[in-house]
Design a protein that fits this description.
The chain is mostly helical. The protein has one domain. The chain contains 12 helices and no strands. Helix 3 packs antiparallel against helix 12, helix 6 packs antiparallel against helix 12 and helix 9 crosses helix 10. The protein is globular and about 45 Å long.
Amino acid sequence: MSIQGRPGRRQPLIVEIEVSPAYEFLMTLCAFSEVEHHTEYEVGKGWFDDVRKKASPDLLALVEQFSFRSHEIWEHTLGLVYDCPAPRNVPALIKHIEAIDPLEIRLHMLGYYVRQHRRETPSEIILQAAQGDFEAQRELLKTSCPDDADWQRTLRWLLSLELVATKNLLLYPLWLV
């Protein structure tokens, strides 16, 4: 398919669809974290209740603490799967995350690579906030979805952690699966 009607744009439009267990896992965490929307999913609220019964209390507590009922953290980590080598399953994702610098992981979590977040907050502010700059963190809290109480709570918690602790807390629920 070619892009028509745009001068100088005759390059073909290429769409790639990629499926992997790691993507599915993170998308499940996205859905699971948004408790108020469970009834809107095709699988129904019963599926979420069943998962809650089968999951360990430690895993449930960590997922709750990590996301504070906001899907944003899990959504932002999808880019880590894209960069993960094949077969892009959960064990490969864990190995990939273990090799990544903690600052890079925090940048993903804060939305540094998400266009919407960079529209709200300049990338330099997000980078400085991730590095621990207090003023940049204040600016990030003012500009990154300020009306979303769950995301704000998640941001405050995330920014209070040491970089290595952030990485370990991301890995911990993956190890429990």
